[in-house]
Write a structure and sequence with these properties.
Radius of gyration of chain A: 23 Å
Helix content of chain A: 25-40%
CATH topology of chain A: Chorismate synthase, AroC fold
Number of strands of chain A: 21
Number of helices of chain A: 10
Strand order of the largest sheet of chain A: 1-2-3-10-5
Distance between the termini of chain A: 46 Å
Oligomer: homotetramer
């Protein structure tokens, strides 16, 4: 099943790169969260191709439609979302989608249509003689599906699938923020050979109590929002932007490292052992397309240390360092989550490469047309943040399930 | 998670009674099934309120939109489904949905909009002083959601949720039919005190080999399609129609029993023990809204028998009787599946009843307005068939997973 | 996966009829339940073959060993369970198992060895020419496993597998009883053509408030514990015992119906829709080996009723009747759960029957040796109760997960 | 649920560090694998504490008992496993466990008793004033379980839990090897600041066709088996052994990096997207206790590269490089899997550290007694290999499920 998170908070997705739209169902948001369509749209806008000039040139509005799971006695506001109309033969019928309501605990359906895709010319990739793009799933998907594969842009393997991640993650982070002032943010720290000097991990280490920490992180979010490259280190960002531009012109692409942090993470989340939050997060981030590595806290650097240097001292007000990165034994300590994720260079380049047709005839591969994002890391941050939010949310509900409050289970208190 | 079937073939649903639409994602259909939107629409039309005169007066076209999971090199046919347009502020954008293509193995997203729902007057049910409809989930859902409940028609607990069952079940039955000539059909055998004399179980016991059996069942399907009450026994159907009419006029409702059968069921499906196909089917049918009982094969009658009368003799050409109803030890034998499902009378009646407000103040309850379906069993058949198809399909894939064919796993056969 | 319940409270089982033992792992019991080995053994003793004279003659002590998931500072009491020793070659090593401790929230491992099984003579059933017992899984399991099947007594399909059901169910019911005074009990109400006049459903309808209801049910449990046939109606029980005896002598077997009830069930449990508690319970009970039908509340009788007769009136102190059987829309109302389960006659009889060898050669089948339980319903009650407890427990945790208590998530309250 | 892998091939575990034993249930091994207890014991012996002189001084035989899921007509061989006896009061009863048989497809139960644990003195860690060991889960588990925590050695969070990983992984790798000649092996490539010059990734890049590759890897396995430090680079191994010894004497510990590879991996495994094999492997390895980072193929180095340097050329005989590490888009390509895993230094050291009691009183923490493994990476390899095997096996069955062979579903071929 195509599901992120779960079993309690889970996000199901469907929709391929160039199909009519991406469907998302979000399960398990508790009742009572005031949810606004605009708040989800905000995060989707950060994910959107074309949201900065280094992204792919495809331009989609990516308007999210909320189709279920909300309610409010104020029907006018509830139903103030975009109108949807379908035309079938001569008949047209329509309805309003949701704009603002309280979650009911029932599943939240969302839809993002793909309204700007061109039918395009995919003949280069079609059939047994279709070309295989190096670094893409073209070849394995052709054989695993016995040839019944969507050749338009990679099907589900496209970055477009992450719309569902972001829709689900947005709901999770809004819930976590409303209940615990949890904040989640990412920053690019490496582009090709260039490395940033300032990191979010350092920044959040300075943050104080709950609300103050959330506020400080939110301020960083605003500060980075205007930047071409969303990095805390602006000198690095400028240099990276220049490098990306040169690389694009050269027909090549670049890898990147993104750091992602969360503050005011509820402590005590994360077992059982075989589904610990560390296992879930390492999988959720490490499994994203184009990711080749993931580390938490001190990460690979911890391998070079002694225990006396790596163990984080504890005082009555908490952990005094954060080599552990927010999780010990796979359970949250309340310290900031700190993870870093390595992205390979975008596989799509215009330089010629050795490849094959799907029937394994050898070819010199060159793209017939257009091109895409030269550094996928640049806009991956919001997806990483979203996946963290989804897993945190699920872990929160899992832990609550083990803390029984019998008073929650009453229906007729007057009954003898 | 709101999921039917699974883990291999599974149907996720979202969407409440009076919301903008019902979203469905179908996971795990293998690649290569030629799927037409019209074939799914056919089954949805059987489910639709207002599809016969005993249903609820609400009239919805229930046009299904296919949004992902299909492909065909013939883009014109692929994209010949209904057009969808969204209007947000001043901007309008749209796309075509799918009409006909091959499944790719990726999830199939579908959407059925609710285009005729009226905003209505739900003030009778709203808030702490809202009335509780006897037999409905109004009271328990109010308390379990801490009041954040959709009071318009029962939310997910509405029969409208079964759109997802039927969408998913349609794909499953089309696959099963294409590979095994499997046929699935239901017939009403009891309405209130009236009982049918002819049953599908008897009919299918006469059917011969695979294709002939499927053809015979299809002929019965066609024969019943025109009937007001979809029952094999036409005399019973006429009498039942008359009784339902009289009961509706009296402001009351009626229970029913529906029999559902499947022929050309692939044998050998159904373990492991704790998730046996019998467990799954009894749950999937017995768990449908308004169902109070379910039985398989000889059912409750088997309790009154001796083993020598109940054990089905076996000869070299198969089982000689079908007391077992198609499953032994929870595993398919290849004999027809035969199940019967008891539905309670529709809870919504116009006769006055003792009830409470949500704050538990006692009231004499009477509906302020309109009314609904006096016998829910009349149009439940296609949902039962769909749930059987979903579970059969999942069990089929589960069993295939245990039969390894190493030759299926090759990529570069020329490699040394 | 061979798992009952879940995802929050779940029971995994392994172990075939005549193998070395039955392994059970119970997941998700919250920390803090005081658990005694003897309390689990009590329920296992009710399940045990040979626990009454109508059961199979096989005699097993079925001593349960608890191997993990408990703790107590009092190590002497904690480790006062049976000693286990293994001998491998010349080496012998051993340990004590647990007797009494608090659950830690970590999984509880349990083992019941099969110490009295005889290696036996299974040549009648072995290989391609092995005989197929009518009504058993012999034939389907042979083909689905490509011949790699355990022919000793049916493997997992044996009633012996229910040891895991009872171990897991015992822990669930002890937890529910400790927190909500929940009580669960079953009674036989039909054996072949004989039907009981007094039922548990009638009895529990008289029970008052929480503790009193639990006490009354416990008293019935004690009253039935001494009976040869565990039925509330002692006249029926005596007549049924006589009938079973006669039938056994005649080489035949009998079906039965068992009623199972639960009182002081926590209300508000049971969504989402597609995994409602009704769906889960109908599956868990209906899916047990030899079960051919299951109904809840008014059951099949509801199909013959009008809505005005079937809807249960509601007053400020609760529901005034229980046609619904404890669940409305798949959600608990706090009224007693009432379900009835139809068992087919035991498939194993000594009368001759038409059957085949596994290679499909026709034979007249007669058992070469021994025989078994002539009425499987007689000792099935504790398994039904256990499966109800498992599903209730899981549903309880699922509902708690949706009721967030932010104060439960604190680690360093002194932190700024 | 405490489960690795799944839903098709899955391993359930139970058992805490100092409890009576570790229970394992392995689900989903297809029927027909010839399984010997000794083959599983071989891998458990590699995992065992005390299996080399750098491990913890605790000595356990870790004899595995197989309790279900096997069968063979040769009962003498089948039942030639260790004898198990239980003593309860005056009664002793026993049985033989399995030694060698064919898998039946039913779950395989296994038990490893903890026969040498000492009741020990855990008073340093018990209760509200119990000391918290830095780097361990003591504090979070105390609060998440409301104090009902096993203080003897960390409960499930102990390395002892990995017994289940290895039992399940052994069965998976035996199956994969028997069907595809798949081989899996690990080697230490970094200990503290020391780094190896020779790696498995380089070695396997030379391996040729299926059987030859498996043979070559097996030879490396044998070569490393005798080494104190299981590393391909013997000079590094010697230096590392010396450093570990010095560090242990100094009361400190060291981190490490382990590389793990697999050859003859079946291609085409690994979707759907949200449960891709990359996601699963990154989680399974990254989630193991003490792991702080995981990377695949080029890993973090890929972030510094251009696409033209990182994309692996394809010719008719396969991929010409392996920057991708065996997975593209989360799907196996048939190239060797190559992953590297960073372990933090063992948290248990004897040098004094700042810590707290569970009631948050500050203390200077020093272990009252004994000590453990100074470099956890040294014996972690077999667990990493096992987790890879479990996920590969599950992915294999998932892919087979999508490739239907209708001829596999026949029972009475002679039936008309």
């Amino acid at each position: 099943m195509e599901i992120l998170g779960g079993p309690l908070f889970a996000v199901a997705g469907a929709g391929e790169s160039h199909g009519p739209g991406v469907s998302t169902i979000v399960f398990g948001c508790p009742p009572g969260l005031l949810l606004e369509r605009a708040a989800i749209q905000h995060f989707l806008d950060r994910r959107r191709p074309g949201s900065n000039k280094h992204g792919t040139p495809r331009r989609e509005a990516d308007t999210v439609l909320l189709l279920s799971g909300l309610y409010s006695e104020d029907h006018d506001t509830l139903l103030d979302g975009p109108q949807i109309a379908i035309t079938h033969g001569d008949a047209t019928a329509g309805t309003q989608s949701y704009a603002r309501g309280y979650t009911t605990g029932e599943p939240i359906g969302a839809l993002v249509l793909s309204t700007s895709q061109k039918s395009g010319d995919y003949s280069q990739f079609a059939g047994e003689r279709g070309a295989v793009r190096p670094g893409h799933t073209d070849l394995v998907k052709h054989y695993k599906s016995q040839g019944y594969v969507d050749v338009r842009g990679g099907g589900r393997s496209s970055y477009r699938s992450t719309i569902s991640d972001v829709v689900g993650g947005s709901i999770a982070r809004l819930f976590l923020n409303s209940r615990f002032a949890t904040g989640i943010l990412s920053s690019i720290i490496q582009v090709g050979p260039l490395k940033a000097q300032r990191t979010l991990a350092d920044a959040v280490a300075q943050f104080g109590n709950a609300q103050a920490g959330a506020d400080a992180l939110a301020a960083l979010d605003v500060a980075m929002a205007g930047a071409e490259i969303p990095a805390l280190d602006s000198a690095f960002a400028a240099e990276a932007a220049e490098l990306i531009k040169r690389t694009r012109i050269a027909g090549d692409s670049l890898g990147a490292v993104v750091e992602v942090v969360a503050v005011n993470v509820p402590p005590l989340l994360g077992d059982p052992l075989y589904q610990s939050l560390k296992l879930r997060l390492m999988g959720a981030l490490g499994g994203l397309n184009a990711v080749q590595g993931v580390e938490i806290g001190a990460g690979f650097a911890a391998a070079g240390r002694t225990g006396s240097a790596n163990n984080d001292p504890i005082r009555s007000d908490g952990y005094q360092r954060n080599s552990h990165g927010g999780l010990i034994g796979g359970i949250t300590t309340g310290m900031p989550l700190v993870l870093r994720v390595a992205f390979k260079p975008t596989s799509t380049i215009t330089l010629p490469q050795q490849s094959v047709r799907k029937n394994l005839e050898e070819i010199d591969f060159a793209l017939d047309k257009g091109r895409h994002d030269p550094c996928v890391g640049v806009r991956a941050g919001v997806t990483l943040e979203s996946r963290i939010a989804i897993e945190l949310m699920n872990a929160l509900l899992m832990q609550q399930a083990q803390n029984l409050h019998t008073a929650d289970f009453q229906l007729f208190p007057g009954a003898e």
